[in-house]
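Sequence only, no structure available. Ideas?
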Amino acid sequence: MSEHERQLLLEAFDSNWIAPLGPQVDAFEQEFAAHIGVRHAVALASGTAALHLSLILLGVRPGDEVLTSTLTFSATANAVTYVGALPAFVDVTRESWNMDPQLLAEELEACARRGKLPAAVIAVDLYGQCADYEPILETCRGFEVPLIEDAAEALGATYQGRAAGTFGATGTFSFNGNKIITTSGGGMLVTDRSDWAQKARFLATQARDPAPHYEHSQIGYNYRMSNLLAAIGRGQLRVLDARVDQRRANYRFYRERLGDLPGLSFMPEHPAGRPTCWLTCVTIEPGEFGATREDVRLALERENIESRPVWKPMHLQPVFAGCRIRGGDVARDIFESGLCLPSGSNLTERQRMRVVEIVRHVAGRPAGGGDARRE
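Reply:
I predicted one. C-alpha cells follow.
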C-alpha cells in the first residue's frame, strides 16, 4: 500500500457508499481507462469475470472452440468452459514465453481446412510481458477471428509503445493480491466499444432490466466491484509507474548477480516491448548449473523464502487432457526448468541478496562477502 489508499478508503466510508457500485467505482473506471488509453473500463470482481464477460460479448457459444496459449494460469482456460466452449492450446516461443504467432497461423489454417474456425483467440501477456501482437493481430484479422487480450499479469507493460490490454476487442486485467497493483480482489474489462461496456455492466449486475421491480430477461452475474475496493484501486493506480520501476529493479538486481551462472537463464525480453517484470523468472539447466530447479526451490524454502515453478502448461493439466494442442514442447520445457523468484515491490536489497546467496550456494558458486542467510 502507498499513502493514497487510506485517504480514498476513508472518503468511501464517509460517503456511506459501502456496497457494490458508487462514486469510487465510477472514478476508478474513468482513471483506469485514461491511464492505458481506452475509451471504456468496467470494474469487476475478478480478472476471470472480465474474461467470462468478454467471451459473452464476442458471442462465444456452447460447442465453439477458443484458442489460447498453453503457458498460462488456469483462469484463462477456465473462463472458456464457463460459456460451454472448448479451449484448444497453442505453444509459446522461447524468445518471449508467449503465444507463438507462427503456430497460431498454422492452427487457424488447419481449422479453416476443417471448416470450423474458433470463435475467438485469447492471447496471454505472461509474467508482465506482452505477446507479439503485430503478427498475432495480422493473423486474426486474416481469418476474421476476434482477439481477447488477457493482460491480467501485465498492467503497466507496453508493446511498440502501446499499453498492455489495448490490443484485443477487449482487454482483461486482474487486481488479485499478488498482482502489480491490487484491490485485494478485483478485475477490469476494457474496450473501445460503448455498447459492449454498457452490456458488460448490465450482465455484471445480475442483468436487471429497467423496471421498478426486479425484472430479468437474461441470465446475469454478480460481478461488479465494490466501492471500497475501487477506492483502494484508485490509490494503487497512482503509484503504478513506481511499482513497475520496483519490479524491473528486482529483475536487474538478480540478473547482475546471477547472470554469470552457467545453466541459468532469465525469461527473455521481447525487443518490441517493455515488460513490467511482474515476476522475475529463470530457467535452470541441471547439467550446466549443477542442480535442478527443484533443488533451488527447496533450498529457498528451507530458509522460509517462497519461490514457485512457472505455470504448468494447460495441455498437461488433467482437467484439459482431452484438448487439442499445437506444439507444446517449448511450454513443457519452460515448466520443467522454470522458477519464479521472489519479486515483490517491497523487497529490500538485503532480502534480494539472501535469494542470490542461496541460489549461488546451490550452484556451488558462492559470492564473496559472507553468508547473507544469517539475517
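Residues 240-258 form the longest helix (19 residues).
Hope that gets you unstuck.
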